[in-house]
Fold these 4 entries.
Entry 1:
Amino acid sequence: MNSILLNISVLVSLSGCHLIGGEVQPFKDMGTTGRMDAGEIQNDLGTAGDVSNFDTNSNSDVGRDTISTPDLLDMPQMDACGNGAIDSDEACDGVLFGEKNCVSEGFVGGVLLCSAECKLDVTKCEPGGKISSGYLFSCHLDSQGETRCWGSDEDGIVSASVGMYTKLFSGNSTACGLDKGENLECWGNTENIPTQPPGQFVDIAIGDSHLCGILTDGRIQCFGDNYWGQSNAPEGIFKEIDAGYGHNCALMESGEIKCWGANASDQSTPPSGTFVRISIGHNHGCAIRDDETVQCWGDNIGFPQGSFEQISSGSYFTCGIRPDKSAHCWGSNDFRQQDIPANTSYVELSAGAQHVCGVKLDGTLVCWGDNAKGQATP
């Protein structure tokens, strides 16, 4: 009882009142700030830390307890980090993340954490870019950062001697790798694409003969062919980008999609709404909404029911990974690209022209679909 009444006294004091004779009375003058300094609290409580002015005639022991004035002044504010609510200056709080997860932050999966400062901690999220499929080839990045490519070597992609990377990207006949310093190196057909595009990038997209990338400040920079305006980068701050044959689409920080370039099939006319992931095929695009459902546009390949964490688009089809790590493909099946290996779980998929390669949960690779050039034989 003693400690309970003391706590009530403290709370009453913090609210701008104190107890006298068992009744709640206001402090003399709290000024315009609604606070009292240590001296004022001392005057109302008696000698610093003494609560002898409280009524002690009741059966309680309130008068026998003391509390330090600094303890009153240093009590935590209700809007502090760790109060169990995401405040305006916080990205998260404890186990609360709002609608954020690893996928919304640009990863393929994993566990999003919250730091002691209420900032997002993505160290346990799973980065993408470990597998990347181009038109007739695929490349894989192992745990040591070394790259291995297979399939068509018509443009020297498979036989090239390349460096150590953290993420891979593929286009029609070009491959690129991003190193730890966020510098980009490209090989294969580089007639219209520089081998070392200037700038530091976080994500890039390679089309038939052009390249666009998101710089570290969120702006987009493009290089190469501009026949359809595919290298005329839009203004704004972006977090994800992908390319088709002659067009690009990018995801803004707001979740809105912007597309530019060729639009004969409405491939550069995306749907409105808020999205968390995008993937662009030859003349179509698909995106995951914030409710995990998928919507597609451009060439009509249809779209699936249910939830997805990740998607990857090929020429006339798209594949995705569901929350249970199973894969599902839709659209064209001319080369059996929808014939997904049974009873397999994935952490990442990448679709080429008519083939798909995936990284399984155990880190091993599997591919299916068109294999005319060995692109489905890792």
Entry 2:
Amino acid sequence: MCCVGVMALTWFAHAQQSMETRDPQPPPTEGSVTPHNPVPSVAPDHQGAQTSTFDPAASIDQWPWKSSTLTGDWGGFRNELSHKGIALAVNATLDLANVLSGGQRQGFLMPYLIDANLSLDTQKMGLWDGGQVFVDFQRAGSTQLGSRYIPDFWSWDAIYPFTQNYTSLSQYWYQQSFCEGGLRLKLGKIDANADFCVSYPGLQFVNTAAYMPGVVVSEFPTYPNQAGGFEVLMKPAEWLEGKFGMFDGSTNWYDPSTGTAHSPSGGRGVGNFFWSNPGSYFLIAEMGPRWTVNNLAGAWNVGWFDQTGDSLEPTSSVSPSPPGQQEVQGPWGLYSSLSQELFKPEGATDGQKLVGFGQFGWSDPNLNASHWSLMGGASWQGIFPERPTDTAGVLVAYNQFSNDPSLTVSPGDGEMIVEGFYEIQLTPSVGIQPDLQYINQPSSVSGASVDDAWILTFRVSISF
């Protein structure tokens, strides 16, 4: 039954971020990655693409080998908190990466991400129906600056924070559901990639290309630059979903007083969205149907984005803009995502399936360094019957740069990515994932003579 009242909530929080030893140009955005997560990280609660929540049902009396968390149920206390609407989760992802050949240099580096989050369900807490409070803290870094090895556009490692030291209160938001979940309003500091540009929830690829189209890389308010804003999430029918979001988009805002880009939104809170924004907002909307045929689910989304205000369009996610580049109108564009379950073995658990997915993006080449991008791939959990929780995946992606030399130092060139992985699920809380990437043209500077790169990564994911 649809809600008949509207509740007002005044909420203010202060976010502080520390970044040291940065790359030459702080990136406007980073990809969204899902560390090992036995619970869906996006649906149904949409906590965020870098997060997962505690699953009490998978932890009771099953520690250590079958528990969904390494620290178990804390003698029943964790499960008790969950039933009272308080969920705590801590996840760690460590990438042992080795550039085998190509790139600017070869060698070993080690990006990592630690994510700790708290979710409060107001209904279970006995307060009011349909409310959720979410707070997320992230600590990340790398032993070396990744751009010194692979100065690519899309970002070859989605947990790499473009710095050797990153600490952030990355998300804090309140969500209120109405009409039995048919309408949800979210307000606060948000990772937009939790709800927008998601080709398929729960993917485990290392490269950022799996998580967003190349045309939004420069502006998207996602890790490590989550931003203040609001979202309207609608489900008018079981087969149809629609979404709209408006965020602080001033990470790349051109500041005429300095002639440079604004500071990243990840270091600011909701105040820069509400009362101190220079007129730079990131708008995004998408809509599409869902279906199930022969017990195989599929989804299709069509989306639009627009960066308002003047923007200093970066030519690379890691490189400074060309000398003398002037500000341009913020880019806009379109994108589409498609996913389809292709096969489920008889008697399979909910996670065992073969899924195909893809994403296409287009943007005005007079305003965006990326003209268009295309990505497609497949992920198969339980490819071997004796290993039902292991997952294998393959991905191919391509980004075409604009022909405008004032926007990119690679006019007319492109960047291609091929990736494959196999995640070995040692326990429900611990996974080890060998991953191999090939990147053609791994530099946004076409004349830099950077050889095609091969990157071998061993990802270790732990849910505490």
Entry 3:
Amino acid sequence: MKNMRRLAKKLRTASARCAVVRDLATDPTKRQLFAEISEKLDALAKEVEDAIAAKKA
């Protein structure tokens, strides 16, 4: 369970970093790429958090 929580935290951190890069990017293609990566990492983190919640229930 600790590993899953750690994974969710790492995914959220990576997503936040991608969002920062997205905001700093001047190239529209790179901005879109990092926005998509950030969204996918958020979705993965949510899946892990949902799995943790399901195990607790």
Entry 4:
Amino acid sequence: MRSFGLSFPTFVAGAVACGMLVASCSSSDETAGPSGASGNGGQGGIDGGGGASGGWMPDGSAGAAGTLLIEAGVTDSKLTPDAACAAQSAEATLVKKPVDIIFVIDNSGSMGTENAAVVTNVNQNFAQIIQASGIDYRVILLTSHTTGQEVQVGPPLSSGATSTVPGNNPPIFYHYDRSVGSHNSLCLALDTYATPDVHSFGQGWGTWLRPEALKLFVEITDDGISCASQKSGHTYNDANSVAGGKTSAEAWDKDLLALDPAQFGTETERNYVFYSIIGISANQPPNKPWEPTDAVMTSECPTAADPGTGYQWLSNMTGGLKFPVCEGSGFDAVFQKLAEGVIQGAKLACDFEMPAAPPGEDLDPNNMLVNYTPSDGSPLVEFKKVANAAACIDNAFYIEGTTIHLCPQACTLVQADDNAKMDVLFGCKQDGPA
């Protein structure tokens, strides 16, 4: 049996996906000793006890006694690291799960100061902070480049915009050029999803999204919600009230999820978070964001027209932060906090590639275990293989092609433990090459 170790070190963002570095297989004549003992450099007994020299390491040295003593359960035979050949372990190469960030920005006449502050801060106090974190990110703007209180983003995020054409900079930056009014941003987000803009960039801003990425909406406006969507056929109006905001937010959320479940998820497992920079009154201190657990309020910051109760509800429903928009004051701190929220809110990816078979060997995916070792010292948890996603049960995983996917409950368990360790064990095919 071969063992491939995956360890999850502490990191600022929780969003990681796992790849594996596989050590070459070496033949060995070491044998497992009886319970509580070890053979000549071999593995300790099944009960976890072992002699002083038990445990095979990648460099051929003896490891700690009783290392990786695992009982199978996917077959009647006992799966231990010595079942087929010498056990091997390799550290995982960790990368962070990608995020697609969609800014929807009001271009109405009252947004001049705020939109100038967006242009000033979106590079230095947002994109560069996320880039430094190591997250694979993409920024998409849904706002006007040429009319009203336009938004024209320069390098390094963009490739260098002209006065008439946005400076799209694939794969990092895309600008969907469409004027956004005081109250219609949510409707435009739906209606332009699969419709080209005036420059015929793509087939709507949805073509720039990545299915594997978490989606983060950032609404920037000093008004509320009042619009009718051609795409959904529904009207949304928060009426500047708590109740109206809840109704409009729930309706739009349902329509967004129906628009493209592969991108935005489902009601029970959303794949988007909604951040709001809106007319809400300031917190104390003023640069402190309102959390998604803070109640929706109707009080406004000084120059705002509306409190944006519908946007507040969307943030609360999806775990997003809320900031005051008034006059763009303190937007440097707002965008820094926004970037930190994006980084901290990202999630651990629960899928990773199967390791390649060592030379001369065939790995048997039907004879396989994934074991999770909690960082708090709790007992090891064995994840067993099921046929597919529909067959998922607790403490299980399935394989599609060459990708291992943790089932939802197992994924949730591991996501809550930044320092988790996982081991992947395979049996070698009996009829594989010699």
